[in-house]
Amino acid sequence: MKVLYISSNSDRARSLNLKHEITELQQGTYNTAGEPIKFDFLPNLTIEKLPHEIARYQPDILHISSHGDKDALALVNSENVCVPLTGKRLRAFLDIIPLPRLVYLNACNSQSIAEDIAKFIPMAIGTTADIFNETAVASAAIFYSRLSRGASVLNAFEAGKNMIET
Predict the structure, then answer these.
(1) In this predicted model, what pLDDT tens digit does every residue of 19-48 receive, in sequence order?
(2) Which residues contact 52 (CB under 8 A, 6 or more apart)?
(3) Checking CA distances to 29, which of 37, 81, 90, 163 falls within 20 to 30 Å?
């Protein structure tokens, strides 16, 4: 299973701990008996490069870590300015074959974006409220750990959801 991990964090925005998240995802899936997960990490990717990298990597799962609100994810452009990435725009960037099987949005208030993407992609995960950075990292780590041990997406999602609720 191939996961393309993309993150975007403006120098001017509240900092996401991207190195910590990458480390947690790698450690949680290392040396497991289930399907191996190969992560390709593109931290601080600019929005101008996003469509090209998605097409180049052709991931099974597209994981985006960024700030978000109910209408858009906040990705940075080449001038380090936050620009909105709506569900509609992201769908246009995902116009590739094969489509990712899942889009995981690790961003605050990303449910409506996930719902918009799920009209086009088989599965999408977002959040319904603000989420602390450490909680988002822990939820993603348990999600991928469960997947790497052979759990279904639903089981992995439930484990991640329980981590957030806890």
Answers:
(1) 666 677 766 565 566 667 888 999 889 999
(2) none
(3) 90
